[in-house]
User: Fold these one by one.
Assistant:
Number 1:
Amino acid sequence: MNLKSRLEASLAPGQLRLLHLAADAASQSGLPLYIIGGSVRDLILGSAIQDLDLTVEGDAIALARALAKRHGGRVTAHTKFGTAKWFLPKDLQTESSETLDLISARSETYKHPAALPTVKMGSMDDDIRRRDFTINTLAIRLDGDRFGELRDDLGGMDDLKQGIVRVLHAKSFMDDPTRMYRAVRYAERYGFKIAEETLTLIPQARPLIEKLSAQRIRHELDLILEEWNAAAMLARLAELDLLQPIHPALTFDESMRERLSHLHTYRGLQHLSPWNITRGEQMRPSDLGWLLWLMSLSQEQVSALNDRLHFTADLLASLFAVSKMYAAQSSFIGLKPSQCVERLESYPLAAVEAVGYAAKDPRVKECFDEYISKWRYIKPHLNGDDLKALGVEPGPRYAVILRRLRNAWLDGEVKTEAEEKALLKALLDPPPAST
Ligand code: CTP
């Protein structure tokens, strides 16, 4: 099978030119050059290639240096892994990238189950066999007149056509238990099935999940929470009993699924520029995913989970905050805007936004949503300098007065600058108390 025309149609002209330059240099050095893995999978499934990583059967660093010598730019290399990054000269930079990654084909072996792999330079055959699933083993040859030729050693094309996620060998999940999470991610992303024999390998690898570092397991869950249908993936993980072995506090139920559906709204809205202007800051979808998923946990559960997953400091603070606010939702009913603001100001914005998505009672929702989109920006027109000019003695009283003015704006007590000034005058110069 030749994918030349598919490749040419899917790549931007600049990318294609780059590909040919690399292919020519590889041919001249007698080195087979390939695109392999996720890019080929996605190309065959009909999406554009995002990262143009090239794998060379031989020394990728030498190839990158030869390219830079001929065409300009510079190279950084990781000799240990045989990988090189070519920082492209201006005339070769494309809209999507200023660099090109060149990777030496490698073998990966595992010293013990769940260990990080030991990486060695290897053949293309090694590089194909080190991979997780057959659908990720497809490669396209780029050098010489074999440009576009599909290499399908392990039946990846058949599995891709039939929609099957299948490991390459029976020890795959034991070598790398994160692959169980990857299997679910691919299956749900593409609407594929996990092969029956692959599913039967889960029980023996499940006890190894506890050996995975916090960073590795969190990374897999982050990747899942970045996906549009994260909820379906988590539901499937729960069904396969792959959440509890991470930590008993990790479960998945209907209310979690419902909350996570708001990830769609967020992802959709993220692309609308007026919304960006109103909301200002953006958070990673995976962070919002964590907050929506776990907001029903208690403070103790969040803390225990953090011992296992080592959340970033910001995410942890937001997780504690959503847990508190979610549990106390009814206490936000019937508050004046200024009271909402006063309470919500002490919480991280991401946490407030997440509870805003999840809240069902419209009165609670309003408090959170209006705070995010409007109320937090409302400030009085007068400031400390104005107070000084009016002869108010500087001190803690300033903050009290300015807050009082802000609250008056928030609650609609003042609607114009003149009304604000009148209120200030009344505050500074209260009418004598009647006796
Ligand atoms: N890989 C693997 N085992 C892992 C992680 C990655 O075998 N635990 C291999 C897969 O063959 C994969 C390749 O390394 O195709 C690159 O990994 P990654 O960039 O994570 O995946 P992509 O294929 O690009 O898929 P995605 O669309 O999820 O990014």
Number 2:
Amino acid sequence: MADQGVLIGREGAWHPAGRQRIMTLGRHIDEGEREHPGATGDFSGLLSDLAIAIKLIWREVSKAGLIEIIGATDCRNESGDEIKKLDEFANETIYKAMDHGGHLCVMASEESQGLISIPDRYPKGKYVLVYDPIDGSSNIDANVSIGSIFGIYRRVTASGPGTEEDCLQPGYRLAAAAYVIYGSSTIFVYCTGGGVHGFTLDPSVGEFLLSHENIGIPKRGKTYSVNEGNYTRWNEHFRRYIDYLKAEDPSGERPYTSRYIGSLVADLHRNMLHGGIFLYPGDATHPDGKLRLVYECAPLAYIVEHAGGRASDGRRRILDIMPEDIHQRTPLIIGSEDDVTMAEEFIQGKGDSLG
Ligand code: AHG
Ligand code: MN
Ligand code: MN
């Protein structure tokens, strides 16, 4: 029993003492700030405000079926997607929580056509927030895991209201990125340039507690995530790659299995912990694929790379792509390093010797 920790609490009530120190997200952010001499606390304040917004979203997500928050609005966003009531609630909650703290000069969201300005009455800060308020919206009504995605940049313009130039930065300039998965538990995963750390919300105390310290994505996985309903639209190289993944190896074993949730954050989080690859390629009808570079792919690519994985559009590193429009799409191949490398070889027509 000793290696399991020590008996504490009531008779026989056992807690895993000694395994995971009790660390709140707030304290972790503050400790991270202290590692950066000259830090002003601005960044801590920003992340703490974000954590509050996420808890407010979690509160609605966790009772979505009981309140008038599921279902669709009668609007469509800039990407043409139907805006769900929860999309709208989350979008508003985030910018209302973030617009007055003095940390941001501008925001951009999947659910807002143009830039989200900081109201004149509030101070302008040195950071930029880009976000997908609810990822996997089509799953809300079916109670399948959904997520939120955030990217934080330092502004490039000198002062005053932020501009499109501040939002259209390549992913390698991200100062931080985070995602939240609202699933059987709600987990906040973030990176500020060092390790990737996960915090699980304990609803009984309303705190995100450290649960996944220094996440490292396995070099290779056993699952692939792709919407095979698009098979007939894929080009020959991509089809050959997926056929290769489905084939049995000489020993009759099938090295890969398919897992596709339809929520990018949920598929990605599984791969972060167990290894694997998520793919949303371009195809005959959507040459740039479906996913958006600025507020979905770049923040997740930043996190995956800091966890030891890879993310590309099949040819270019996602973090090197220079955005030209807030809502521009990109093909996305993301996950375990060896899996992404092999997918790129097939996509570039070099996989013939393998498949
Ligand atoms: P969003 O709900 O923010 O529009 O994102 C949905 C995305 C992503 O979460 C998911 O992997 C993908 O759409 C699923 O698309 P398909 O239904 O075309 O497979
Ligand atoms: Mn999304
Ligand atoms: Mn979304």
